[in-house]
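Lab manual, section 2.4: Encoding a predicted structure.

Procedure: take the sequence of the chain (171 residues), apply the prediction step described in section 2.3, and record the output as structure tokens. A sample record is shown.
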Amino acid sequence: KQFQFNFDTPKVKTMSSAFENCESLQEVTFAKDRKTASFDASRMFAGCTSLEKVNTFAEKEDEISISSVSDVSFMFQGCEALANYTVISFTTEIEKLTNFLEGTSMTSLTLKGIKEVESLEYAFKSMNNLKSLDISEIEDNPINLKGFVSKCSHLTDLKMSKLINIIDLSY
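Recorded output:
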């Protein structure tokens, strides 16, 4: 039910699908000062339907801080119990957030620390409880927003003020 990352992983290049479909996993804790290389975290927790707490020693309790990660595609896809976070901050360069939070239960979300990103394709798809989304820190560069808020039926507040160079906004 609980996993703690309190070991250094300086040579690990991928943790892709490491915990995928671990349906009873409820909490993950990352050690505060662990040494790690940038790694692929795609699908890392995808399908972990009971995951509700991700402790990254962020500044605030309702924040997930992501660092040393090169790919977060599908990282939390289908983590239905993941609801109590309002900020996800990045201290690393990310190119794509494809299906990043699809199917999670957050109601309000702000992305911080991302200046340039190529794709948010389906990043927030099927976040049925999402009412407010702020991606205004993303700078204007060619960006794919295909289906990025599809099936977000309760979304009423969307902040993306700097984005005008959108290459795909289809559903």
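Check your result against the sample. The first strand starts at residue 2 and ends at 5.
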